[in-house]
């Protein structure tokens, strides 16, 4: 049975165990209720008929989102349970999973009913067993609760994880800190695109960060995410000074 943890008004999460390359990394789904009562499921977990009553008590599931090219394993189960929901994917996912139906692609910035904003995160890639792969991840900002919702663009593995996972996180540079791993640091060659994307995220006002893997950051999330990406980029992400046009300076 799906257990939903209420993070803030109209915002819930659910987690389950997930092993990747033999390591426990966990997996998280985020549920957002829009002003109309429509529900948005980001990165759905396995959903069974028994879960439907709990979800339906909160609103109407109108949107299912696969937020990057890696988080699609349970998307088909969610579509079976909610065939009327609009299915959103990202660039390249329909080619990777031709067995799934996607009604639209999150390839441009936008929002759902003015409260759940989204942004394609450009240039971000990871070294995987199949080589370097671009994630084409879309990140989200729930404006009313000042929460940023991530999937794989940052992790936060801490002492709640098993020893083997903590050891791997230490080696990869993502233990007890909100940031990507060295696999993304080394795999993301287009650092300019990454910087442009993270600067847009940092323009949002937020305290809480919900990652797809790792513990939720309840406070000071913006500063922690900024520091994590300064580590990845190797430079400061302080606001850039506005350029002064020639002839506009005071005399």
Features:
251 residues; alpha/beta; Metallo-beta-lactamase, Chain A; 7-stranded mixed β-sheet; 5-stranded mixed β-sheet; 24% helix; 26% strand; globular
What does this protein structure show overall?
With 251 residues, the chain is of the alpha/beta class. It has a single domain, classed as Metallo-beta-lactamase, Chain A (4-Layer Sandwich). Helix content is 24%, strand content 26%. The chain is built from seven helices and 16 strands. It has helices at 49-56, 75-81, 93-96, 163-172, 182-187, 191-202, 221-233, and strands at residues 5-8, 11-16, 19-20, 23-24, 27-33, 38-42, 60-65, 86-89, 104-105, 110-112, 116-120, 125-128, 131-134, 138-142, 147-149, 208-210. A hairpin with a 2-residue loop joins strand 1 and strand 2. Helix 6 runs antiparallel to helix 7. The longest helix is centred in the last third of the chain and has 13 residues, at 221-233. The termini are far apart.
What is the helix fraction of residues, given as a range?
A: 10-25%
Task: Say which CATH homologous superfamily is assigned.
Answer: Ribonuclease Z/Hydroxyacylglutathione hydrolase-like
Look at the helices and sheets and give the structural class.
alpha/beta
CATH hierarchy, class? Alpha Beta
Total discrete domains: 1
Residue windows where pLDDT falls under 50 for at least 5 positions: none
H/E element order: EEEEEEHEHEHEEEEEEEHHHEH
* Distance between the ends: 70 Å
* Extended strand count: 16
Q: Name the strands of the widest sheet in spatial order.
A: 1-2-5-6-7-8-9
Shape: globular
Over all CA atoms, what is the radius of gyration?
18 Å
Architecture, according to CATH? Answer: 4-Layer Sandwich
Average of the residue pLDDT scores: 90
CATH topology: Metallo-beta-lactamase, Chain A
